Amino acid sequence: MIEVFFQHDFLRQALFAGIMIGIVAPFLGVFLVVKRMSLVADALSHITLTGIAFHFLLATVFIGLADVDPLYMGMAFAVIGALFIDQLRKVYSHFKELAIPIMLSTGVGLGVVFISMADGFNTDLFAYLFGSVAAVGQTDFYTISVVTVIVAVLLTLFYKEWFFMSFDEEQAAVSGLPGKWLDLVFTILVALVIAAAMRIVGILLVSALMSLPVAAAMQWAKSFKQMFVYSALFGEVSVLTGIILGFHLDLAPGGVIVVAAVVILLFSLGWQKLRNKRPSLAPKQAS
């Protein structure tokens, strides 16, 4: 089934792009879950949709924009949304989670308005919403590659700092870490990964790739580092399953990816529940 992906350039690009997204998305998702900020990905994905819709709207006025990849406008809006979330978290310092529904609602509202003004949905927009293997072009592949490298470098450089901040933000601030700056960089990274992943997973489903593999990994991992390993493993299995089955069965890969991730999560929960019910084999101590 997978041999066909090496016979055509666009399928090979989609496969390798999916492999990269299957690693970096769950990696960032680990920090989001630990920090209880999983919905940030959802908010930024809707802001990305706003950028895509705005591009299509502009393309109806400026015909030359039709040849420009909407990915760039989506990325720009995602980064702007990340900056706004960071500012709102400062404004509502005691209710930081309020920044997420504010940006999510803004993204949905503006997105619907722009889509309506651009004469509604079209095939391209549906591909962005739910993912498409055929939609991954060479430019998208290069963009995803660059984002993957950026994420890998920054995770390597700031792993200890983000680890510290994830578990004890106040103590990290007391110790002198530039928490606000590091938070901003991390949120921008999340925005870039979401925008890059929308071709494969789809804007409406990409946040699931940052949370479901992590939720499954929590059932197996015995340390923080193991969570990265299991999250990437489950993310890769979900993405490859979605891409391969989505292509052969003519289904939206994003939906299949999420379903595969849900199946892995349910199996993990069921396995742990079954293991906890097993009777202990240790000999009883004599009373």
Automatic annotation (TrEMBL):
Subcellular location: Cell membrane; Membrane
Membrane topology field: Multi-pass membrane protein
Pfam families in the cross-refs: ABC-3 (PF00950)
Keyword Transmembrane helix listed: yes
Main location: membrane
Transmembrane segments: 14-34, 46-65, 100-121, 141-159, 180-197, 228-245, 251-271
SUPFAM superfamilies: ABC transporter involved in vitamin B12 uptake, BtuC (SSF81345)
Alphabetical keyword list: Membrane, Transmembrane, Transmembrane helix, Transport
Annotated GO biological process: response to zinc ion; transmembrane transport
GO CC, alphabetical: ATP-binding cassette (ABC) transporter complex
Family indicated by similarity: Belongs to the ABC-3 integral membrane protein family.
Protein name: Zinc transport system permease protein
Source organism of this protein record: Natribacillus halophilus
